[in-house]
Every structure is written in C-alpha cells, then in structure tokens.
Hints:
Helix content: 40-55%
Number of strands: 7
Strand content: 5-15%
CATH architecture of the largest domain: Orthogonal Bundle
Strand order of the largest sheet: 4-6-7-3-5
Shape: elongated
Distance between the termini: 20 Å
Largest sheet: 5 strands, antiparallel
Order of helices and strands: HEHHEHHEEHEEEHH
Radius of gyration: 19 Å
Number of domains: 2
Amino acid sequence: GVPPQYIVAFWGIETDFGRITGGFSVISALVTLAYDGRRSTYFRGELMNALKIIDGGHITAKAMVGSWAGAMGQPQFMPSSFLNFAVDHDGDGRKDIWKNVADVFASAANYLARSGWKGDQTWGRPIRLPKGFDQTLAGHGTRKLISEWQKLGVRRADGTDLPTRDLKASVVLTEGPGSAAYLAYNNFRTILKWNRSNFFAIAVGSLADRIGDG
C-alpha cells in the first residue's frame, strides 16, 4: 500500500490540504483549451471525459470547478484520471474528490498504487556528490544500483554511507551542475506520473518525510 504520509503530502502540495482547488468552471476551461490549437486533441478528450463524469452523477456541471487547465478537486485530477482512478470510498454512489476527504484520499492512493508505487520503498533522499562527479551521469536516463553510486563517491547529505539495500536509483539535480542533488528511487518516478516536475516530486517526498518523522 501507499503510506498515509505520502497521501497527505500530495494533498498538501496540490491544494494546500484541500483549501485551494481552483475556481474555474472545468467545462468552460476545457472548451476553451479544446479550441486553443496547441493540445486541442488532448483537451477535447478531457472535455468528453468531464461530461461523462457529470452524466455519471458524481458532480453537477456548476459544481465542477478546478484549475484553468481542467484539473479538478482536492487531488487536482484531470477528468481522465478521475475516470481511471477515482474511488467511492464511503459507498454513497458518488466519487466526490471535491468535498469528501475519504474519497480524496482513497482516490489518490489508488492512483499511486496502480501507477507502480512500491510500498516497501521510500521515494529518494538528498545526497552529497563527490568533487569531479561526472555530470553526464545525472538524470533519469541513468539508473545504477545504490552500491554502484556508493563506489562512485556518492553519499548521504550528511556525508555518511548510502543505504545497503541495493535498489536502482538515478541522481537528480534540481538546477544543473552544483545544485542540490537527490537519489531518486522507483517511487520518485511514480510521483512523476502524477506531475512531471522534479521539483514537485522532491517537494512531495520531502514533505512526506517531515510528516512521517513528526
């Protein structure tokens, strides 16, 4: 399963724990984007998905509000993600990711679990790179065992040895050479399926660590 601190972290980063979910009409936003030209095919599909959600009785068109790009509710699901992953946790016949926190948490957990989350692993960790580290090894395109990174001089942020568990991981730099570095495990990649920003993944993982330690 997905540890609860990660669900809470996603919730916090996406919508400030449900407080900021967007005030745009999702239907109006998607209609506009469907005729924008740049990703019109994608947004036309999302518009059709949004109409299916309304037709399914989960929300009214008026109450279906979200971001300017059509991301909805407390987990900021696009309509396609809603149809694929939303859960009616309390059994009331509606998948309510706008007001029902039980449905929100269950839907987020379902999304992550079905996207490849490894319940026995963490997301990653801040690291210290050795002087002269080969910058071409940084990025998600290179994955090595933790023991291999250890041999290359990579250490935890406090300078101690890396964990002995031999998972595959990538070195991720936040802003290029000399910037903060992280060791990214499988769950980091799963977070990127939710949002493709390394900054987002690091924010979620770091907040989850703080919640878990609290």
